[in-house]
Specification:
It holds the Pfam family Aminotran_1_2. GO terms for molecular function: pyridoxal phosphate binding; transferase activity. It comes from Amphritea atlantica. Keywords: Transferase. Helix content is 41%, strand content 15%. It is α/β, with parallel strands linked by helices and 412 residues long. The chain has two domains: 32-67 and 316-411, Aspartate Aminotransferase, domain 1; 80-314, Type I PLP-dependent aspartate aminotransferase-like (Major domain) (Aspartate Aminotransferase, domain 2). Strands 3-9-8-7-6-4-5 form a seven-stranded mixed sheet, with helices on both faces. The protein binds 4'-deoxy-4'-aminopyridoxal-5'-phosphate. 4'-deoxy-4'-aminopyridoxal-5'-phosphate binds next to helix 4.
Length: 412
């Protein structure tokens, strides 16, 4: 009888868990963690609402707190000139460019920003995507394929891992900052693949340390592979004028094949960019799906980033102040015998507390005492290295740091 379904619903053996979102493994895991936190009486540190600008201080639930949880490193987000540039761009172009750039979303301000980024890096060109995360996903997903190899530091950001997975390339990681291990991998595996890319970060966002770029450049030249540096956290932070790991390590811009960065940290907006040689940038601009099939960045955001670059170049003192206040923080923290791990003491300094419960508890106690710092819990880091992660800004004062560290030490 053709009208009858082949299998009646009653007969199906498909379990409920495959048909219900409340039985999704991620959702179940989240509920277990939330219940655990509730039983321990720890308030959730997530989705706290900031009521105004988040810089060295912030307002949460009507209270002003010292803030170490925002990556407004040079205090440019909220800068009056940045706001004014964004407002003017909004008045002229509106809040959306209403199309992908390739099909009528292009505005003069897009290329202006890309040229400014390319000039800052000293490379041919740059291309800006609507999200930093999407920049890595789309760039890696598009450039590499099944016959290629992606080798990355084990602490690389999720966006690069997702991009590597999307590419279908073989993916291998090496222990954090262990370039001997990387060299060994290259010697053993390079010849088995067509294109190979090494991915590292300019400043690791959980640990505040960075790789030996000079040696990476030697390795990449020796083994004929590409080198990609994600400068999400190092751009605006490292080097005397904030030009990133290249400036600090003193290598040529063209020694790195793919410079990646975000607009969401120092550059006071959101979005990401790739800077490098024309052949790379043109290829991504015409063919990478995250650029091609996505809207162009809003003009006010482009204007904010251009103005931020301008202020950064005009006022190198911001970078110097960020460095000196960071040095103060790490020196004082070490004097109090706090464990700052391998942090190099510039802009990102963790205090490792050894368990997720401990980190969540201490973050909560600091919050109650007027200090906002995010705990980083398992699985974002291994359980034994759960931590508080301090983001510094050039506006933090020694007094704020003394208050914070003394309060923290009194809680341990
Ligand atoms: N790369 C790194 C190293 C990051 O830390 C982040 C996010 N903080 C991204 C990429 C993604 O950038 P965005 O938040 O601008 O999307």
């Amino acid at each position: 009888d053709a009208a009858k379904p082949a299998v009646s619903l009653k007969e199906t053996t498909i379990p409920d868990k495959f048909c219900r979102f409340d039985q999704h493994p991620g959702y179940i895991q989240m509920q277990i963690i939330n219940r655990g936190a509730e039983q321990l009486g720890v308030e959730s540190p997530f989705f706290r609402v900031h009521e105004g600008l988040a810089g060295a201080t912030t307002i949460i639930a009507g209270h002003e707190l010292i803030n170490f949880a925002s990556y407004n490193y040079l205090n440019l987000s909220g800068h009056p000139e940045v706001n004014q540039a964004a407002t003017q761009a909004m008045q002229r172009y509106g809040t959306s460019v209403s199309a992908s750039r390739i099909v009528s979303g292009e505005r003069p301000i897009h290329r202006e920003l890309e040229h400014a980024l390319a000039r800052t890096y000293g490379v041919d060109d740059a291309v800006v995507f609507v999200s930093g995360h999407a920049t890595n996903v789309s760039t890696l997903g598009y450039l590499f394929g099944a016959k290629d190899l992606i080798i990355h530091d084990e602490y690389i950001h999720n966006s690069s891992i997702v991009g590597a997975q999307l590419s279908g390339a073989r993916r291998l990681s090496f222990p954090h900052n262990d370039l001997d291990a990387l060299e060994h991998l290259l010697k053993e595996r390079r010849h088995q693949f067509e294109r190979v890319v090494i991915i590292v970060e300019g400043l690791y966002s959980m640990d505040g340390d960075f790789p030996d770029l000079k040696r990476l450049v030697q390795l990449k030249q020796q083994h004929r592979v590409f080198l990609m540096v994600d400068e999400a956290h190092s751009f605006g932070v490292l080097g005397n004028s904030g030009k990133g790991l290249r400036e600090l390590a003193d290598v040529d811009a063209t020694d790195v094949d793919i410079w990646m960065g975000t607009l969401s940290k120092t550059l006071s907006g959101c979005g990401g960019f790739i800077a490098g040689e024309s052949a790379l940038v043109e290829n991504l601009r015409h063919l990478s799906p995250g650029f091609l099939y996505s809207v162009g960045i809003p003009a006010p955001i482009a204007a904010a980033a251009i103005k931020s670059l301008e202020i950064m170049a005009r006022e190198p003192d911001r970078v110097r102040r960020l460095r000196s206040i960071s040095e103060y923080f790490i020196t004082q923290a070490k004097a109090l015998k706090l464990n700052t791990g391998d942090s190099r003491g510039i802009a990102i300094i963790p205090v490792i507390l050894g368990s997720s419960v401990n980190a969540a508890r201490i973050s909560s106690a600091l919050f109650d005492r007027g200090i906002n710092v995010q705990p980083i819990l398992y699985p974002a880091v291994p359980e034994k290295s759960a931590r508080l992660r301090f983001f510094l800004s050039c506006e933090h004062t020694q007094e704020q740091i003394d208050t914070t560290l003394n309060t923290l030490a009194s809680l341990l």
